[in-house]
User: What shape does this take?
Amino acid sequence: MLDPTLEAEGLGPTPFSEALAGDWAARRGEIAGQLGGARVLVVGAAGTIGGAAVRQLLGFNPARLELVDLDENGLARLARDIRSRGEGGGAAIGFNALDFAGWPGLALAEAAGPFDLVLNFAAVKHVRSEKNLFTLLHMIDVNVVRQRRFAGHLAKLRLARRHFVVSTDKAADPASFMGATKLLLEAVAFGASEQADAPVSTAARFANVAYSSGSLLESYLQRFEAGQALAAPKDTRRYFISARDGARICLLAQLACAGGRVAAPKFDPASGSIELADTAAAFLRTRGRRPVFVETPEEAEALARAPGSDYPVLLTPRDTAGEKEVEVFHGAGETIEPLNFGALEALRPAAIEPAALTAAVDTLEAFVTGARRATPGDIEAVIRGVLPSFAHAAAEASLDDRI
Assistant: This one.
């Protein structure tokens, strides 16, 4: 059955979602055999993909789920939703408001483990979070430094059979610090798995998740409810999937990918992508409103106050840091390998010399802790030393400055 979410918003289904539905139906039995009675740790469980993954997991009757997230309100909402739906079966479920890589989080993994599967969705995922040195350092801390600490902890104490991390399309030939930190995340997770008896580590990159927390499409809901103009950048195309399909990609990837491989959508994103302005128009049409594209905030405000079915969509220039015209899923030096899926293929990452990676992450950790002072230029130089495909698209404009 196809997820009706995107279809209801005028965005689907798509050839990719249909192919993924076929893959899911074909491999569901294997996933059930893997997860039935299993012990699973989900990090970042209160996020959009984390929550969707938890709901998928519950359908396979695991014995125990330990859910970890810093967002205690998000965990409370997830707990209420699970209980209200009558989901969970006989699984023992722990809801833990913790930093996954702080001492209490590491101690929980040790006390509650070992796990058959660890799904790690923890991330700073917005390019807007690289807007100044301090938020950039936080991004590096969460996406790289803490990921290395956590993966090393799992490997050293043999706490997991399989360890999966979620990456992003922006990791392919990254143009933003966020994409670069996700590419480093893949590298540190895979590096930890090379230790003896370490978990098999895999990852996945996929397209934008429609209506995920903090996303442009989620802003349509908020702005429409408030009677405010919608906004979208000009000449920018993206491919969208539902949260449920994102969760299924993750579960298929951890099942089928060999260690040190990244699952990615098997399609040309340019051929199936949609102009972001068109997503706003589709949103309005499903609500009986006629989209009217405007170029200035003043036009948008005036039209928002006017009676009738016309509704403003403010078109903004694509001139903020780290933006690409369209997403891609594999970059320079990465090798595509078949995965026997209709929707997904595997990527072998470009090689990074282990000693160089360790030295780079050590330096980044020193920047994060304040042991060494750094500028954004210093950080960029360190990252570029191990990721030569990193081409930062710098800009003065910030998404926080836009409506």
Remarks:
- The mean pLDDT is 89.
